[in-house]
Design a protein that fits this description.
Blueprint lengths: L1 E2 L14 E3 L2 E2 L10 H8 L7 E2 L15 E4 L12 H12 L5 E6 L13 E6 L7 H7 L5 E6 L17 E4 L13 H13 L4 E3 L18
């Protein structure tokens, strides 16, 4: 457990939130833009998957109300992750009902349980080809459901009012130059959709050179 610089994991009072990564090793999802895989290779860390069993309160639990990005470097619902590991992780999450755990997945179709009440569950969508994940997310029980358009690599279809996520996050691809940057028009389109449907939207700091004006950084209500 450690503080994270990820801005959308900030606590309600604006202080830094936390990341918690009990599963070590190279994420088998193998996204080409994954910063964690680059870090593992750079520092020559062991690639094999391991449940490190890092208890949340090992050095004292975070303050009540803290937000924690759980498994920020791992796809928790990948087939390579044993179900027993997930059982242990969710057991830890349920042990701290006064903390908010944020889980982001590309595999919502493999979610095998309802989420505890202190979980915000999100799906990662980079373009229109991933939009089915939002439909799969709609079938899962969770108090807060959100969409992370990061990296935002293409235009996105209109959000259906039949299932509205509770939150939308937008960010660009970093470390690959500007050729994959979303257009201002595409970002504006997402902002307009979100505001029309009364969905809080969070524009990441890495959009400040693209977005003309103050960044909109809203949280679920």
């Amino acid at each position: 457990m450690q503080h994270t610089k990820i801005e959308w994991v900030r606590n309600e009072d604006g202080s830094p939130g936390y990341s918690w990564n009990p599963i070590k090793g190279l994420c088998p999802e193998a996204c080409f833009y994954c910063y964690a895989r680059a870090m593992y290779r750079r520092f020559k860390k062991p690639a094999g998957l391991l449940l490190a069993s890092g208890l949340i309160g090992k050095h004292g639990p975070p303050p009540s109300g803290s937000r924690i990005f759980a498994c920020s470097t791992m796809e928790l619902f990948h087939p390579a992750i044993p179900g027993g590991w997930r059982d242990w992780i969710f057991g830890e999450i349920e042990s701290y009902p006064d903390l908010t755990f944020i889980i982001l997945t590309k595999r919502p179709e493999r979610i095998d349980r309802p989420m505890p009440d202190n979980v915000w569950l999100g799906v990662s969508i980079t373009g229109a080809e991933d939009w089915k994940r939002l439909l799969d997310l709609s079938k899962v029980s969770a108090r807060v459901k959100f969409v992370s358009l990061e990296p935002f690599l293409g235009d996105i279809p209109i959000i259906s009012p039949v299932f509205k996520p509770d939150w939308v996050i937008v960010g660009r691809l970093t470390g690959y130059g500007k050729k994959r940057d979303p257009s201002t028009h595409a970002i504006q389109r997402m902002v307009d959709q979100a505001w029309f449907l009364r969905i809080p939207i969070f524009l990441k700091n890495n959009l400040k050179d693209i977005w003309p004006g103050p960044l909109i950084q809203e949280y679920p209500r």
